[in-house]
From TrEMBL:
Origin species: Buttiauxella gaviniae
Keyword Protease: no
Enzyme class: isomerase
Keyword Transmembrane helix assigned: yes
Entry keyword set: Glycolysis, Isomerase, Membrane, Transmembrane, Transmembrane helix
Family indicated by similarity: Belongs to the phosphoglycerate mutase family. GpmB subfamily.
SMART domains reported for this sequence: PGAM (SM00855)
Protein name: Probable phosphoglycerate mutase GpmB
Gene3D superfamilies named among the record's database cross-references: Phosphoglycerate mutase-like
Length: 215
Protein backbone atom coordinates (compact mmCIF):
# COMPACT_ATOMS: atom_id res chain seq x y z
CA UNK A 1 0.00 0.00 0.00
CA UNK A 2 1.46 3.36 -1.02
CA UNK A 3 1.60 5.90 1.81
CA UNK A 4 1.99 9.57 0.86
CA UNK A 5 2.81 12.24 3.44
CA UNK A 6 1.52 15.78 2.87
CA UNK A 7 3.22 18.76 4.53
CA UNK A 8 2.23 22.43 4.42
CA UNK A 9 5.24 24.78 4.26
CA UNK A 10 6.54 26.68 7.33
CA UNK A 11 5.15 30.03 8.42
CA UNK A 12 6.01 32.90 6.06
CA UNK A 13 6.27 36.64 6.45
CA UNK A 14 2.94 37.16 4.72
CA UNK A 15 1.20 34.37 6.70
CA UNK A 16 2.22 36.28 9.82
CA UNK A 17 1.04 39.60 8.34
CA UNK A 18 -2.26 38.12 7.06
CA UNK A 19 -1.36 38.87 3.44
CA UNK A 20 -2.68 36.66 0.64
CA UNK A 21 0.10 34.79 -1.18
CA UNK A 22 -1.51 32.38 -3.64
CA UNK A 23 1.09 31.95 -6.38
CA UNK A 24 2.99 35.02 -5.18
CA UNK A 25 5.58 34.34 -2.51
CA UNK A 26 7.25 35.49 0.69
CA UNK A 27 10.12 34.05 2.73
CA UNK A 28 9.81 31.76 5.75
CA UNK A 29 9.96 33.59 9.09
CA UNK A 30 12.40 32.47 11.79
CA UNK A 31 9.50 30.53 13.30
CA UNK A 32 8.78 28.98 9.87
CA UNK A 33 12.38 27.80 9.57
CA UNK A 34 12.13 26.21 13.03
CA UNK A 35 8.85 24.53 12.11
CA UNK A 36 10.51 23.12 8.98
CA UNK A 37 13.36 21.72 11.08
CA UNK A 38 10.86 20.11 13.46
CA UNK A 39 8.80 18.53 10.71
CA UNK A 40 12.09 17.36 9.13
CA UNK A 41 13.04 15.60 12.40
CA UNK A 42 9.74 13.74 12.25
CA UNK A 43 10.07 12.99 8.53
CA UNK A 44 13.46 11.41 9.25
CA UNK A 45 11.68 8.68 11.22
CA UNK A 46 9.15 7.92 8.48
CA UNK A 47 11.34 6.27 5.83
CA UNK A 48 10.73 9.00 3.24
CA UNK A 49 12.22 8.13 -0.18
CA UNK A 50 11.12 11.14 -2.26
CA UNK A 51 10.45 14.80 -1.41
CA UNK A 52 8.30 16.48 -4.06
CA UNK A 53 7.46 20.18 -3.66
CA UNK A 54 5.51 22.99 -5.24
CA UNK A 55 7.98 25.24 -7.06
CA UNK A 56 7.12 28.37 -5.02
CA UNK A 57 9.91 29.67 -2.74
CA UNK A 58 8.25 28.89 0.61
CA UNK A 59 7.62 25.23 -0.27
CA UNK A 60 11.07 24.83 -1.86
CA UNK A 61 12.77 26.10 1.28
CA UNK A 62 10.69 23.85 3.55
CA UNK A 63 11.30 20.89 1.25
CA UNK A 64 15.07 21.49 1.19
CA UNK A 65 15.21 21.29 4.99
CA UNK A 66 13.14 18.08 5.03
CA UNK A 67 15.04 16.48 2.14
CA UNK A 68 18.39 17.18 3.75
CA UNK A 69 17.27 15.49 6.97
CA UNK A 70 15.98 12.49 4.99
CA UNK A 71 19.07 12.27 2.76
CA UNK A 72 17.12 12.62 -0.51
CA UNK A 73 16.80 15.24 -3.27
CA UNK A 74 13.87 17.60 -3.89
CA UNK A 75 11.81 17.26 -7.07
CA UNK A 76 9.65 20.26 -8.05
CA UNK A 77 6.09 19.94 -9.35
CA UNK A 78 4.19 23.14 -10.26
CA UNK A 79 0.89 21.23 -9.92
CA UNK A 80 1.39 21.43 -6.14
CA UNK A 81 1.20 25.26 -6.12
CA UNK A 82 -1.28 27.19 -4.00
CA UNK A 83 -4.56 28.38 -5.59
CA UNK A 84 -4.02 31.26 -8.00
CA UNK A 85 -5.80 34.07 -6.15
CA UNK A 86 -5.69 36.53 -9.05
CA UNK A 87 -6.13 40.22 -8.24
CA UNK A 88 -6.18 39.62 -4.46
CA UNK A 89 -2.64 38.25 -4.24
CA UNK A 90 -0.34 40.37 -2.03
CA UNK A 91 -3.33 42.03 -0.36
CA UNK A 92 -3.88 42.11 3.41
CA UNK A 93 -6.96 40.14 4.51
CA UNK A 94 -8.01 42.97 6.81
CA UNK A 95 -8.14 45.67 4.13
CA UNK A 96 -10.36 43.99 1.54
CA UNK A 97 -13.46 45.92 0.42
CA UNK A 98 -16.86 44.26 0.77
CA UNK A 99 -16.80 43.33 -2.92
CA UNK A 100 -13.28 41.86 -2.67
CA UNK A 101 -14.23 39.90 0.45
CA UNK A 102 -17.19 38.54 -1.53
CA UNK A 103 -14.82 37.26 -4.26
CA UNK A 104 -12.70 35.57 -1.60
CA UNK A 105 -15.72 33.95 0.05
CA UNK A 106 -16.97 32.49 -3.24
CA UNK A 107 -14.07 30.06 -2.97
CA UNK A 108 -15.41 28.42 0.15
CA UNK A 109 -19.17 28.99 0.19
CA UNK A 110 -20.25 26.56 -2.51
CA UNK A 111 -20.47 28.92 -5.46
CA UNK A 112 -20.02 26.63 -8.47
CA UNK A 113 -16.71 27.40 -10.18
CA UNK A 114 -16.26 30.53 -8.00
CA UNK A 115 -12.96 32.33 -8.52
CA UNK A 116 -11.27 35.61 -7.68
CA UNK A 117 -10.96 37.76 -10.86
CA UNK A 118 -7.92 36.58 -12.89
CA UNK A 119 -7.62 33.59 -10.50
CA UNK A 120 -8.26 29.86 -10.54
CA UNK A 121 -11.31 27.89 -9.35
CA UNK A 122 -11.12 25.27 -6.62
CA UNK A 123 -12.18 22.66 -9.19
CA UNK A 124 -9.24 23.52 -11.42
CA UNK A 125 -6.87 23.34 -8.47
CA UNK A 126 -8.39 20.02 -7.36
CA UNK A 127 -7.70 18.48 -10.77
CA UNK A 128 -4.02 19.45 -10.81
CA UNK A 129 -3.50 18.40 -7.17
CA UNK A 130 -5.03 14.96 -7.84
CA UNK A 131 -2.85 14.61 -10.94
CA UNK A 132 0.26 15.33 -8.83
CA UNK A 133 -0.85 12.83 -6.17
CA UNK A 134 -1.69 10.14 -8.73
CA UNK A 135 1.78 10.57 -10.26
CA UNK A 136 3.11 9.03 -7.02
CA UNK A 137 1.54 5.73 -8.12
CA UNK A 138 4.20 5.53 -10.85
CA UNK A 139 7.12 5.63 -8.39
CA UNK A 140 9.03 2.35 -7.86
CA UNK A 141 7.43 -0.17 -5.47
CA UNK A 142 8.38 0.51 -1.85
CA UNK A 143 8.56 4.31 -2.34
CA UNK A 144 7.28 6.56 0.40
CA UNK A 145 6.92 10.10 -0.96
CA UNK A 146 6.40 13.31 0.99
CA UNK A 147 4.72 16.21 -0.84
CA UNK A 148 5.29 19.81 0.30
CA UNK A 149 2.43 22.09 -0.70
CA UNK A 150 0.03 24.75 0.62
CA UNK A 151 -2.95 25.28 2.93
CA UNK A 152 -5.78 25.54 0.43
CA UNK A 153 -4.19 23.17 -2.07
CA UNK A 154 -3.74 20.37 0.48
CA UNK A 155 -7.08 21.11 2.14
CA UNK A 156 -8.78 20.74 -1.22
CA UNK A 157 -6.93 17.48 -1.94
CA UNK A 158 -7.81 15.87 1.40
CA UNK A 159 -11.43 17.15 1.28
CA UNK A 160 -12.05 15.74 -2.18
CA UNK A 161 -10.53 12.37 -1.23
CA UNK A 162 -13.08 12.31 1.61
CA UNK A 163 -15.83 12.97 -0.93
CA UNK A 164 -16.41 16.59 0.06
CA UNK A 165 -16.67 19.20 -2.68
CA UNK A 166 -13.48 21.05 -3.67
CA UNK A 167 -14.76 24.25 -2.05
CA UNK A 168 -15.10 22.54 1.39
CA UNK A 169 -11.36 22.79 2.08
CA UNK A 170 -11.71 25.37 4.85
CA UNK A 171 -13.46 22.70 6.97
CA UNK A 172 -9.95 21.35 7.50
CA UNK A 173 -7.38 23.26 9.51
CA UNK A 174 -3.98 22.53 8.01
CA UNK A 175 -1.52 24.70 9.91
CA UNK A 176 2.01 25.54 8.84
CA UNK A 177 4.21 22.40 8.86
CA UNK A 178 1.31 20.12 9.76
CA UNK A 179 1.52 16.55 8.43
CA UNK A 180 -1.30 14.66 6.77
CA UNK A 181 -1.15 11.19 5.21
CA UNK A 182 -3.13 9.55 2.46
CA UNK A 183 -2.81 5.89 1.51
CA UNK A 184 -3.68 4.18 -1.75
CA UNK A 185 -5.43 0.89 -1.09
CA UNK A 186 -7.06 -1.83 -3.17
CA UNK A 187 -9.71 -3.50 -1.07
CA UNK A 188 -12.82 -5.52 -1.89
CA UNK A 189 -14.36 -4.47 1.45
CA UNK A 190 -13.26 -0.91 1.99
CA UNK A 191 -13.19 2.06 -0.38
CA UNK A 192 -10.60 1.38 -3.07
CA UNK A 193 -8.29 4.21 -4.02
CA UNK A 194 -7.07 7.03 -1.79
CA UNK A 195 -8.02 7.08 1.89
CA UNK A 196 -7.13 9.64 4.56
CA UNK A 197 -5.03 8.23 7.40
CA UNK A 198 -4.48 11.53 9.26
CA UNK A 199 -4.92 15.24 8.65
CA UNK A 200 -3.30 18.35 10.09
CA UNK A 201 -1.12 16.69 12.77
CA UNK A 202 1.18 19.23 14.49
CA UNK A 203 2.31 17.10 17.45
CA UNK A 204 5.97 17.49 16.31
CA UNK A 205 5.89 21.32 16.69
CA UNK A 206 6.97 22.90 19.97
CA UNK A 207 4.76 26.00 19.61
CA UNK A 208 1.23 26.37 18.31
CA UNK A 209 1.33 26.92 14.56
CA UNK A 210 -0.48 29.88 13.13
CA UNK A 211 -3.82 29.67 11.43
CA UNK A 212 -3.79 33.03 9.73
CA UNK A 213 -7.49 32.94 8.94
CA UNK A 214 -8.68 31.95 12.40
CA UNK A 215 -6.74 34.12 14.86
O1 LIG B 1 -1.56 31.60 -0.12
C1 LIG B 1 -1.81 31.92 1.07
O2 LIG B 1 -1.73 33.06 1.51
C2 LIG B 1 -2.25 30.82 2.02
C3 LIG B 1 -3.76 30.67 1.98
O3 LIG B 1 -4.14 29.66 2.87
O4 LIG B 1 -1.69 29.59 1.64
P1 LIG B 1 -0.20 29.11 2.01
O5 LIG B 1 0.31 30.03 3.07
O6 LIG B 1 -0.35 27.72 2.54
O7 LIG B 1 0.59 29.14 0.75
Amino acid sequence: MLQVYLVRHGETQWNAERRIQGQSDSALTEKGERQAEQVAERAKTLGITHVIASDLGRTRRTAEIIAQACGVDVTLDARLRELDMGVLERRNLDTLSEEEEGWRRQLVNGTADGRIPDGESMLEMSERMHAALNACLDLPPGSRPLLVSHGMALGCLVSTILGLPAWAERRLRLRNCSISRVDHQQSPWLASGWVVEMAGDISHLDAPALDELQR
